[in-house]
Amino acid sequence: MAGEVLELSGVGVRRDGADLLRDVTWTVDEGERWVVLGPNGAGKTTLLQVAGALLFPTSGTVDVLGERLGRTDVFELRPRIGLASAALAEKVPAGETVLDLVLTASYAILGRWQEEYDSTDLARAVALLEALGASELLQRRFDTLSEGERKRAQIARALMPDPELLLLDEPAAGLDLGGREDLVRRLGVLADDPAAPTTVMVTHHLEEVPEGVTHALLLRKGQVVAQGKVDEVFTPEHLSECFGLPLAVDRHRGRWSARSTR
Ligand SMILES: Nc1ncnc2c1ncn2[C@@H]1O[C@H](COP(=O)(O)OP(=O)(O)O)[C@@H](O)[C@H]1O
Ligand SMILES: [Mg+2]
Question: Residue 164: CB partners within 8 Å, gap ≥ 6?
Fold first, then answer.
């Protein structure tokens, strides 16, 4: 395994005659914090689904946590991966409390259900929600939360089984400015925590990239435009090509921003 968390080689995903991903070769090593950036429809969610062992590639090979997709039991692999996405949020049963949402993540991994909570699980769920500034939400129903509160609850759930790989699809989407800044700051704290899992976060806004992100992959029309260390990837040239318009890029106190120069 040699510390490789993700190893994609020549990966293509084809659906109904359309190439959602083309020839993606990408390695994520243990401890790295990646952001996948690209315009709407670039294939970011598709790539994250492949990384999460939820989608098999049409071509190429994918190793996730040392297991080759197609040769491994994905039902054993998936519990080792924490995923938060809008698609998952939509599947939360009506009336589910925040505490139950987080706790059931660990029951899923153990393959059991119990009426009484295990006290270590309970302590972990509460600690995770506290770390994400959501301790006051424990008994709230998920369907009554604001968008920002939902995002924090979902990230706590994704972290609950102590995953080896954390995948976040558009964690700051739909948040207002205050909510975005709060979440991006918390994601920065998570990125700086050496105990946090290897992380891949997807976004289409450079402004949502937290401090502490180490690597970036730029996608355009299913293909990789650039990948590597953030400083080398977030150049005006690469970002202009990725988004298809001339961009000026700024960095201020570890955060990035882009605007059109047209
Ligand atoms: N079943 C499908 N058939 C054809 N195209 C699809 C299908 N599913 C998704 N797509 C297209 O694939 C592209 C990539 O989708 P997605 O990975 O969701 O992009 P992103 O997350 O970057 O916005 C989009 O243009 C989308 O419309
Ligand atoms: Mg998407």
Answer: 5, 65, 80, 81, 197, 198
| Pocket flag, ligand 1, residue 18 (CB < 6 Å) | yes
Helix (H) / strand (E) containing 32 = none
- Burial label, 202 (beta-carbon count in 10 A; 0-12, 13-18, 19+): buried
The pTM of this model reads 0.94
All domains of the chain in start order, with CATH: 4-260 (3.40.50.300)
Q: How far is the CA of 41 from the centre of ligand 1 (A)?
A: 5
Closest ligand, as measured to the CA of 36: 1
* 239 Cα–ligand 1 center, Å: 21
- DSSP label at residue 135: G
Kindly report, residue by residue over 68-117, the tens digit of the pLDDT. 999 999 999 999 999 999 888 888 988 899 999 999 887 654 444 555 66
